[in-house]
Amino acid sequence: MPKWPDGEILELLEHHGFKLERQTKHMVWRNGDGKVYVCSSSPSDVYAYKKALGELKRVIGINKTEMTQGERRERKHRAKSQPAAVTFTPQSSTARPTMADQLANLFKKE
């Protein structure tokens, strides 16, 4: 029996009937249903065990890779704001004079 994979991976392989078919640079495991699981003989990555476990679960069917669309909630409809009514109010005689009026008063001929 190979040294790698071990732990949960080896338990899952044995539980689901996988037999080691061949081993060179990669180990090829096959079960009676025709499912094939391949992993490296010598892992070179610190996350190799985690990746191998995830891949085995996908092969077995424990983790589903198909994405299902969840239910969407109804979209909130915001009331469209109405533009404010613009009203024109003429200036009263007590209003401040405009700049043009002030300039006209300065240069008014007396």
Overview of this protein structure:
The chain has 110 residues and is an alpha+beta fold. It contains 3 helices and 3 strands; from the N terminus they run H-E-E-E-H-H. A 3-stranded antiparallel sheet has the order 1-2-3. A hairpin with a 5-residue loop joins strand 2 and strand 3. It is rod-shaped, with a radius of gyration of 40 Å. It starts with 7 loop residues before the first helix and ends with a helix. The mean pLDDT is 80.
Rounded to the nearest angstrom, the radius of gyration is 40 Å
* Distance separating the two termini: 118 Å
Name the CATH superfamily assignment of the domain at 8-60: Hypothetical protein
Class per helix and strand makeup: alpha+beta
> Approximately what portion of the residues adopt beta-strand conformation?
5-15%
- List low-pLDDT spans: none
Helix coverage percent: 25-40%
CATH architecture of the domain at 8-60: 2-Layer Sandwich
CATH topology call of the domain at 8-60 = Metal Transport, Frataxin, Chain A
Name the average pLDDT. 80
By CATH reckoning, the class of the domain at 8-60 would read Alpha Beta
Give, in spatial order, the strands making up the sheet with the most strands. Answer: 1-2-3
Number of helices in the DSSP assignment: 3
How many β strands by DSSP? 3
Essential attributes:
alpha+beta; 110 residues; 3-stranded antiparallel β-sheet
